[in-house]
Specification:
Strand content of chain A: 15-25%
Strand order of the largest sheet of chain A: 6-7-8-3-9-10
Number of strands of chain A: 10
Radius of gyration of chain B: 22 Å
Order of helices and strands of chain A: EEEHEEHEHHHHEHEHEEHHH
Largest interface: A-B, 35 and 30 residues
Structural class of chain B: mainly alpha
Order of helices and strands of chain B: HHHHHHEEHHHHHH
Strand content of chain B: under 5%
Shape of chain A: globular
Distance between the termini of chain B: 47 Å
Number of strands of chain B: 2
Structural class of chain A: alpha/beta
Distance between the termini of chain A: 45 Å
Number of domains of chain B: 2
Oligomer: heterodimer
């Protein structure tokens, strides 16, 4: 499922008559099976952008094509869109409502035309993918689970429909380092089985390590996009790293001040580690 | 979320913004009485002229000020139809079974809907030009006499203000949860009534839960910041009523009086 976005804009009017342009003239494309990160400061329009991508809002300008089809024309099957695009919002645990975990996860499958046993199979798969023992958890109330478990049940409810495109809004915010790593591995796993993944995050390390392409938003505009490494290298130059610099890049900058010049292509900790190893072993490169 | 909830305060320095909240609330009640008391063409002309003047004085965009009316336009239409069809008036124009379309019914319908619309706009004008905190302090001092008969007026005022302040938050949250469930495949726009009714459950349950969570968080935060029940809290200094406030009150009282005289 490839996504093509052309001159996408979204604006709204406040009761005071003031017009707010949340997104301005965004043009980009996302290929099938890609892992795309979206970054930008708070209030830059990231959440609005993914709401538009999922067809939850209609743009005030521009078009979004899913496999060549405009999703905002009259007569486009929105229900098919819901099955194609899955969204995990911030705090997904707030969406839980059903009496049992099984029913909650099955909620999105209601209109899929699956048989009862197929639905159970899907629910089992989704819950097991999220690390649950299906038999143990199926009859529990989702609202009685712990915070972390609630979140995983909610995500199971999204992946149960097997969407071809999965969008995550700040999926790792508020998780401990171990949970973060686990969750990112899970997202990578989904991506490796062919799902296109779009991830909004403030965590630059996660974006640098996991995504293949990046979109950078600032005040509703797309200020940069491309392969993750290239974008990070450009951001570093753009405003001297004031915004969009990973920890590894920061360390490289500090080392450079101490007369240890390393490659400017270093983005992640792994890059840094191998560059330092080379430096120590060979000694010649620097 | 993207269109701010109606009725929210919009900063400004118009005549209406500057009036003391106590005066504004009293004027609101006087004008509501005037609207309800209007019975003749001239009566309605007077309240319409008053409200138009207030709209102009408020400096608010007309669209924002009448937004709540548009929001409940379906409800208003139903009220109009109910009145028109069920009112047992004279001059019946047509009737089908239990329905009687009468001149009196149509008039009654228009009157009820007209009153509602005007009162809505008045209320909206108050909340759009007055800070919630000002509304609370004003309410508190206006209901103070009730303290004599044992009503905990301070608590009542706090409860009202918290309720008012949470309306935008809850509306915003409702929209977010609605989006989340739609993304999951919920169908709120389904044509079948039974399906539609059932589809509200995924909306209502999370909103209830989050309201309780918010209530708990807020009460903890209030306690942590030293709020205790039945303690005399210091209040922002109350400004005395200015000449403009008295003028507004007198004008509103006059309008109300004229309305009653015309009626009688």
């Amino acid at each position: 499922m490839s996504i093509k976005i052309e001159k996408l804009s979204y604006s709204y009017t406040l009761p005071s008559g003031e017009k707010v342009e949340a997104l301005k003239d965004i043009t980009c494309s996302i290929e099938t099976g890609d892992f795309v990160g979206i970054m930008g400061p708070t209030g830059c329009g990231k959440t609005t952008f993914i709401q538009l991508l999922a067809g939850l809002r209609s743009p005030t300008g521009g078009r979004i094509y899913l496999d060549g089809e405009d999703i905002n024309v009259r007569g486009y099957d929105r229900n098919r869109l819901r099955r194609t695009v899955g969204v995990v919002f911030q705090n997904p645990e707030y969406q839980l409502f059903a009496a049992t975990v099984e029913k909650d996860v099955a909620f999105g499958l209601k209109y899929n035309g699956l048989s009862r046993s197929e639905v159970t199979g899907r629910v089992r798969w989704a819950l097991e993918t999220m690390g649950f023992d299906f038999e143990k958890v199926r009859a529990q109330s989702p609202l009685a689970l712990s915070g972390g478990e609630k979140r995983r049940v909610a995500i199971a409810g999204v992946i149960a429909t097997k969407p071809k495109i999965l969008i995550f809004d700040e999926p790792i915010a508020g998780l401990d380092p171990y949970g973060r790593r686990n969750f990112l591995q899970f997202i990578r796993g989904m991506n490796q089985t062919g799902t296109t993944v779009i991830m909004v995050s403030h965590n630059l390390e996660a974006l640098a390590e996991y995504t293949r392409h990046l979109l950078v938003l600032e005040q509703g505009r797309l200020i940069d996009s491309g392969p993750t490494r290239e974008v990070f290298a450009r951001l570093q130059q753009r405003n001297n790293g004031a915004f969009g610099q990973t920890e590894a890049q920061r360390i490289v900058a500090l080392l450079a001040e101490g007369n240890l010049a390393l490659s400017s292509a270093i983005i992640t900790y792994d890059d840094l580690l191998s560059a330092l190893k080379q430096e120590l072993n060979g000694g010649g490169a620097g | 979320m993207k269109t701010l909830p109606t009725g929210q305060y919009i900063p400004g320095d118009s005549f209406l913004h500057q009036l003391e909240a106590r005066a504004k609330i009293s004027c609101l009640f006087l004008l509501i009485a005037a609207v309800l008391g209007a019975s003749s063409f001239w009566g309605y002309a007077l309240v319409l002229a008053t409200i138009s003047t207030l709209l102009l004085l408020s400096g608010l965009p007309i669209r924002g000020a009448v937004a709540p009316v548009r929001r409940i336009s379906w409800f208003l239409l139903i009220i109009l139809l109910m009145n028109a069809l069920f009112f047992e008036g004279e001059a019946v124009l047509a009737s089908w079974g239990i329905f009687h379309l009468s001149r009196g019914g149509i008039e009654q319908g228009f009157r009820v809907v007209g009153n509602l619309v005007l009162i809505l706009i008045l209320g909206n004008l108050l909340t759009m030009t007055t800070l919630p905190t000002q509304v609370t302090t004003a309410l508190e001092s206006l209901i103070k006499p009730l303290k004599l008969i044992g009503v905990p007026t301070e608590e009542v005022a706090i409860i009202i203000s918290v309720a008012i302040q949470f309306i935008p938050t809850l509306l915003e949250e409702t929209e977010l949860i609605k989006m989340t469930q739609i993304a999951r495949g919920a169908r709120f726009e389904s044509k079948k009534l039974s399906e539609r009714a059932a589809s509200f459950l995924p909306l209502v349950v999370p909103i209830f839960i989050s309201s309780f969570r918010r209530a708990e968080e807020l009460s903890l935060a209030m306690e942590a910041r030293g709020y205790r029940k039945a303690r005399n809290r210091t209040k922002p200094k109350k400004a005395p009523l200015a000449p403009a406030d008295y003028t507004a009150l007198i004008v509103c009282a006059l309008i109300c009086l004229i309305q009653l005289l015309w009626r009688g």
